[in-house]
Design a protein that fits this description.
The chain is α/β, with parallel strands linked by helices. The protein is built from 14 helices and 13 strands.
Amino acid sequence: MATAPVAEPVPVTFVSSHAGSGGSEHYLELLLDFLEPAWVAGVISLADGPFVARLRAAGHSVAVVETGNRLSLLASAMRVRRLLGARPQAVVHANGVKAALVTALATPGLGIPIVWVKHDFSWDGPLARGVAARCDQVVGVSAAVTATFRRGRERVRVVHNGIPPIERDRDAARELVRALVGGDGDVVVLVGRLHPAKGQAELVEAASRVLERRPGTRFLLLGGDDPHELAYGRRVRARIAELGLERDVAVRGHHPDAPGVIAGCDLLAMPSGPDERGMGREGFGIVGIEAMAVGTPVVGYAGGALPEVLGDCAVLVPEGDRQALSAAILELLEDPARRAELATRGRQLARERYSLEATVSAMRERYAEAASDSG
């Protein structure tokens, strides 16, 4: 569903920090799919992975510049500079902080404005503010992720993520979920890679309390192992075994239709929280919007951007309070009328505030403004 342009097309080169299946990659895939071709000059990915393959399969030209940390950033910046110098573009969209840093190092003297789309709290503090000083605009996917910027607020904008309309048959989805969890009963799902910030360990601990009062409830952890946090995945599985919850908690890998799985569940859990470095809170939480769109209520921790994004359409408890999390899950599982109320409000919020059409239109305006200001 292409939308009508709000300005003359501005050719944009998109630089992606990552190439996995995370929220920032999902955001960029949707944006590229819905922008008209005249707005897309090309894509540079600072890693190789499934994201690159998906974009190429969709017909996008993608150059891969493998980028690690520290000294490799400079070498990557030189390669990115050569790629940018070899193609016509009016603006660079830096998708994530690593992309913004590499692009800032790559563009001096080229006269190409940088629009940094900030998805999370990574490197917040002096480094994020230093990167922002080299960008023409910083676009936060929530107000929460822009809080680190004390100066230069006139160059900071907020453009919430949007999603296309999602329709799923909840009865058919329920059958899909039964196959995944191996039985009937209420199902609480958590969608995300196995990473401390996503809160699988939090939900496992809450599950043991829920099952004391509602035996037969099923919990589904949907998402693959994070290659950088394999030890965490092992700890989560070991804790499930230690608590004797192998029948009650199913750990499944990435699913190609996560919204379809969510539609077949009774609740979506988002117990996200900061990792040992203070990062990892949800910068937006697009899976929560997808859950609302298909009519599945959300319960989670009131951290990061979730209070801003989900508002009173979700039940959010103090961050890290596992007892409150389990109590909220029990309360919702035992109150179908409350779940139905949240589902109705959530569908309305997803439709009215988080449409992909609005996001794409706002980003076109950001690109056009950046190109105009640099001209």
